[in-house]
Amino acid sequence: MTVLDPAATAIRLFDPERDLYFFPIRHHSPACALHLREALRAIRPAAVLIEGPVDFEPLITELLAPGVVPPVAMVALPDNAEKGRSGTTYYPICRHSPEFVAIQQASELGVTVRFIDLPSRHAAMLSDRRDRPDQPLLPMRETMFDRGAYVDAMCARTGFRDGLALWDGLFEARARSTDWRGFFASVGAYCSALRAASDPAELQTDGTLQREAMMRACIQEAIAARTGPIAVVTGGFHTPALIDAKAEAACPASAASRSNAWLIRYDFRALDRLNGYGAGLPLPGFYERAWQRLIGDDSNAGASLTEDILVGFRAHLLESEPALAFSFPTLCSMVETARRLAELRGLAEPGRTELFDALQSSAIKEEIEVGAHPLLAAFRTYLQGDRLGDLPPGSRLPPLIERARTEARSFGLSLEDAVPKTRELDIYRKPRHGQTSQFLHAMRLVAPPFAERLRGPDRVHGFRADMLMETWSYAWSPAVEAALIERAADGETVRDVAAAILTRRLADLEHDGQRNNAAAAFDLLSIAFDAGIGSAADPLFVAVSDAVGSDTNLLRLTKALVTGQALDSRAKAMQSDATIKAFADLLPPLLDRLARRIAELLPDLAAVNADTVGEAIACLSALAEAMADPDPPFPAQPLRDALQGLLEAQLDPQLNGAIIALAALIGLVDETEAGRRLSAALAGAFERPGDAIRTLSGVMALAPQLFVNNSSVITAIDNLFGAVDDQGFLDLLPQLRMAFAELSPQETDKVAAIVAAAHGAGEDDIALLQQVPDARVLTDHLALSERLRGQWQADGLSAWLEPLP
């Protein structure tokens, strides 16, 4: 690819014949914004055409409303007709966006403002050029400014380290120049060279050519209605394709019709180029400070921008990360180093790159990987900024958004910026905390980006279900508002929308053939419970009851019983809440039906064989957990009767062991009787040692203490191993290891001591037994022993194999 000189690719930005002024910009560039403002004041155009989706044009009035505080974003949501095109399209605006400055200036001049790009949900606009799936869909991208043969060659020629530093040095450093014509001529030449070095096939594939055809059509339409000069403000990469070009087709008649578009709050974190945002400059907080200096809107104008930033960063570290804070002499060194670097590089004042270089050379003495030091990371976050835009009360937003914000604030949740915050909730002992938890759970359903639970009881999966505290991380962000807008048709409150979502999930269960899945239905009930969705209780309970009555899968039913029992326990602890009381009243009859359904199906376990015993053991384990409660919220007698019947049945050995263990756990038999039954089962399996080990595995899965605490059971296992030869023992060893994996080290030691004592071993022998090698080493030793035995017999030394008297 040929590297082009900008001077050789200069373009004519003023067309006197058509009275057109072209202004090539870089999105969110303060230098472009300031020069554009001065240019528009000078030429006083009759119309300003801006690269922006035409269907966003009705939002311009809202963008200029009093009380709008950038950063904000125009967003378009997918509608039901867009199959295969998911994701929200964002068009962010900050105070130093050239487009925003052009709109403001046009408003001051009282002239027409038009957007001239394709509609936001056009296929060419949705060309997915994201590096990560979590990045926003954007109608503008400027990666061509960052990399490529031309950018690399220019960096090599000028000494700048990358494309971003190159742009800063060539253009942002000229922000204070009063020659707007010369500035845009330079930008136009640079962008023309970028365009000439690009791949036409890629421009066709990514939708660029289709978009430019639309822009040309809109320009021609504006020319036809012209009453004076026309200013055309577009990304610099597009400008060369718009000059001296005729429209291939007319602008679509419906182009400016309103789409599913809204104006929402945005934030600097989402706007940051380093977070994957596809246009503009990195670290918007830095360029916002630069913009304030340029327009004279800075309360700290007495200090230089460099001093203001570095002094502010040190104060920030002293308050939030004191371990990283540097001394005042180091601060002075940074300021001086940044100034000297700017002089050396021919810049009027230090820029973003010089600040980072000064920080690294003055405050970081050790060798580091590029960009990897925590102080550099903290500085990057500081310059990124945490500003969250705002919209005035009464803005045209779905009621759901403002109600969600109002409710969040009522619970003391801070929405002033987009920085993630942590909240600890005492969910059982403080009613207000319990209500806050319900709101956060509901928001996790409605707008998942808002909140994430870091710690807390998981009643669905039984993990740490006895915890009293929850820990949440939350942050209000553009993605939250977009999610709320997308859900706005489902209701006006967070809980109404959450209820609608759960109703759809119920429908999805039926659609996926899971209508009879009791465990899945109870999981939905648990989610509704956590979110405090009283309005969804009745239909959910009906659906769950239907699933219980028709489900034939014991594992799902027993899991549902555990979930329902946990719900009942929490409901009883929180009955001061009206929503919780509604759940508490509805749960008992449902759990009654569930327990009786399980009891009805338990006899079917008699048909279980070795291939399906694993699921049966899991059922019994869940049942053991539920029935461990001395006062369960369901009828236990039908379950006890069914288990009594299984105790007398002929069962798979592993299932038999588990049934004996469960019977002992719930007091159906005492431990003495359980030990007798287990010893008898093991003694009856001498001809099939593998069955004996499987019986033991069943016990270990539910109640290993029955084995550890009952010497008769241990004796039965010891006798079993005494009856098999060495090879038989090795064959059983893998199963034995799996069975004993349920024991703790202390329990293993206890069993070893009992067995050793039964064989007359002393304490020293027991200590030696505790150092048993692994299976491979043991197998090798036994094989060697067998070879020695054979060799001695062959040599007539059989007497050596006889035990000593």
Low-confidence stretches: none
Beta-strand fraction estimate: 5-15%
| Mean pLDDT over the full residue set | 82
Kindly state the percentage of residues in helix. 40-55%
- Quantity of strands, as a count: 11
CA distance, first residue to last residue? 95 Å
Separate helix tally: 34
Major β-sheet profile: 5 strands, mixed
Major β-sheet strand ordering: 1-2-7-3-6
Q: Would you tell me the structural class of the helices and strands? A: alpha/beta
The radius of gyration computed from the alpha-carbon positions, rounded to a whole number of angstroms, is: 37 Å
**Overall morphology:** elongated
What does this entry look like structurally?
The model has no long low-confidence stretch (mean pLDDT 82). Helix 27 runs antiparallel to helix 28 and helix 27 (671-683) runs parallel beside helix 30 (711-722). It contains 34 helices and 11 strands. A 5-stranded mixed sheet has the order 1-2-7-3-6, with helices on both faces. A 3-stranded antiparallel sheet has the order 5-4-8, covered by helices on one side.
Task: Sum up the structure in keywords.
three-stranded antiparallel β-sheet, 805 residues
